[in-house]
Amino acid sequence: MGDRWLVEVDRSLCIGSAQCVHTAPEGFRLDTARQSHPADPETDANEKILAAAENCPVEAIMIRLLGSGEAVFPPEE
Ligand code: SF4
Known about the structure:
Layout: E1 4-9, H1 19-23, E2 28-30, E3 36-38, E4 42-44, H2 47-55, E5 61-65, E6 71-73
Antiparallel strand pairs: 1-4, 1-5, 2-3, 5-6
The chain binds iron/sulfur cluster.
Iron/sulfur cluster (SF4) binds at residues 9, 14-20, 36, 56-58, 60-61.
Keywords: 3Fe-4S, Electron transport, Iron, Iron-sulfur, Metal-binding, Transport
Protein name: Ferredoxin
InterPro entries: 3Fe4S_ferredoxin (IPR001080), Fe-S_cluster_ET (IPR051269)
């Protein structure tokens, strides 16, 4: 079985650029305040969601392994 991820968006950082929605349309939604939310915070490991996190201009998207809480993105130093 593949990894399961917990995806979070830090709304104090999100600037509503919508890049994550374009990169991973199934992974993120913008609300009426143009704040991004994960479509489903608990998701199977997914390259598009990882790409969205990597490409967010303000690094507002965090991904951890569900269960252990180990950082997937941003990676721990
Ligand atoms: S890419 Fe980052 S800043 Fe842009 S909407 Fe998504 S979470 Fe917000």
